[in-house]
Specification:
The chain has 248 residues and is an alpha+beta fold. The longest helix is centred in the C-terminal third of the chain and has 26 residues. The chain has a five-stranded antiparallel β-sheet with strand order 3-4-2-5-7, with helices on one face. The protein folds into three domains: 37 residues; 76 residues, 2-Layer Sandwich (Translation Initiation Factor IF3), CATH 3.30.110; 107 residues, Protein of unknown function (DUF541), domain 2 (Alpha-Beta Plaits), CATH 3.30.70.2970. It contains four helices and eight strands; from the N terminus they run αββαββαβαβββ. Helices cover 32% and strands 37% of the residues.
Length: 248
């Protein structure tokens, strides 16, 4: 019985050691036993960057109303939001491209020095949506229409830009990343005095694109000029990690 117990402990220790070796830095299989892990070779990372012209604008906007009671605030906000939604749809924004992002009803308080306590002075209703504008040239006109429809209750938080189908840009970025990785590996092999073989491992990671963002806050001014929205360019990038074999 004692001999079987000792054999069981030895087997457990062997499995634990093998399991830890599978978690060594750089191993492609983390947290698992990998008896075929190959760490030899030249490991490099490559990055590819492509500039793209956005074709979609995403506008974050809404209504904020404050009144003495919840019912009054909610009624006022609902009426203004209905006018804003009509302005969006009338200017070509599809209903499927409008989505509620935030809705709240909160008390508004202030500190009463005489009573030494907070007192409720009203209620604030906030209703925010995102609207995807597919005709990016109309972004400025849509902002103006929304600001007029919602009046002083209008809140326009931000506008972001993106590419509807970035697959072609990612293909170009991937080619550049692979070329970058190969150039680095060839230089390292030359400095080390070895011959570079074929890739034995390739992994791709895609960070999110960098969206340019512009802020716009509606202001009640007489006869405002048209809002100018400039989408500019955005950067689409990805990184890859490649391991190259070393030839004898």
């Amino acid at each position: 019985m004692k001999k079987s117990w000792l054999v069981g402990i030895s087997l457990a220790l062997v499995l634990a050691i093998v399991g830890l070796s599978g978690c060594s830095p750089g191993n492609t299989t983390v947290g698992a036993i990998n008896l075929n892990a190959q760490q030899e070779g030249v490991w490099v990372s490559g990055k590819g960057e492509v500039m793209a012209v956005p074709d979609i604008a995403t506008l974050r906007l809404g209504i904020e109303a404050q009144e003495a009671s919840v019912a009054e605030a909610q009624s006022k906000a609902a009426e203004a939001m209905d006018r804003v939604m009509t302005a969006l749809i009338d200017n070509g924004v599809a209903e499927k491209d409008i989505q509620t992002q935030y809705f709240s009803i909160r008390r508004v308080t202030k500190w009463d020095r005489e009573k030494e306590e907070e007192i409720v002075i009203g209620y604030r209703v906030t209703n925010m949506v995102t609207a995807k504008i597919r005709d990016i040239d109309k972004a400025g006109a849509i902002i103006d229409a929304v600001a007029e429809a919602g009046g002083d209750l209008t809140r326009i938080d931000s506008i972001g830009f993106s590419v509807d189908d970035p697959s072609d840009y990612y293909e170009e970025a991937r080619q550049k990343a692979m070329a970058d990785a190969k150039a680095k590996a060839e230089q390292l092999a030359e400095l080390a005095g070895v011959r570079l073989g074929k890739p034995t491992y390739i992994s791709e990671g895609m960070p999110p694109p960098i969206y340019p963002r512009y802020m716009y806050e509606a202001a009640p001014v007489p006869a405002p000029p048209p809002t100018l929205i400039i989408p500019g360019e955005m950067e689409i990038s990805l990184t890859i990690q490649v391991a190259y074999a070393i030839l004898d």
